[in-house]
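Case 239 in the screening queue. Each case pairs one protein sequence with one candidate compound; here the compound is 9D3. For every case the pipeline is the same: read the inputs, emit a complex structure as tokens, and attach any notable structural observations.

Predict complex for case 239.
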Amino acid sequence: MRFHVLTLFPEMIDSGLNTSITGRAIKNGLIELDSVNIRDYTKEKHGKVDDYPYGGGAGMVMQAEPVYLSYKAVEDKIIKEGRKKPRVIYTTPQGRVFNQEIARELSEEEDLVFLCGHYEGIDERALELVVTDNISIGDYVLTGGELPAMVMIDAISRLVKGVLNNDDSAKYESFTDNLLEYPQYTRPEQYMGKSVPKVLLSGDHKKVDKWRYEESLKRTKQRRPDLLEEKNEDSTVTE
Ligand code: 9D3
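Case 239 output:
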């Protein structure tokens, strides 16, 4: 999987993703991260990439040209290397809301381009020319599209073969549909007067599995009853 990120803040993308599991996956060559600074594609002096909105109003709008040219540079490279035109995800509060199903679908692509907006957004003409998908990460207001791109790249990366270690993948293969995880404990057996549930020390794997399933169900009913309704509606979250 090759991620290409068009942004005015490439160092934010690089510092976030060259860390932990995604960082290891990049070093191992399982995923590739290509952060492109939109500012490198302006033809204006002083590196200007934004201007006042036509029609007036607050704030600045990112100009079409550097956005389009930065995309074109990425597309040209992908085509030259013999691959197909990529999907281009515009991170925007006006998109459909990202979820595990979208992550799974996007993880099948060979290249993904993320276009991150800042200021009041991007000139609509550049968006019309390059964007294939508009995606949000939820109904709250952020300052830009960089964190959403990082969230999506993280979620997609862990679905790429080899990115999670064997322990992790085995764990997720046996994950029960649409239920929250059961509580976890590690040593010591007593902490601040609180004991580890006895069944977990019993060595009886069938009993442990049953206890964990019941705890998952109880926790889901309490914290995310909406997931149980989805389950009955035959939802598709399967990992
Ligand atoms: C101040 C301008 N806003 C009018 C209410 C619109 C607006 C534009 C750009 C609000 C936020 C942003 C920056 N956010 C994103 O680029 C963004 C985002 C988000 O804010 N929430 C959830 N998902 C996403 S994806 C990209």
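Case 239 observations:
- Residues 205-223 form the longest helix (19 residues).
- The mean pLDDT is 94.
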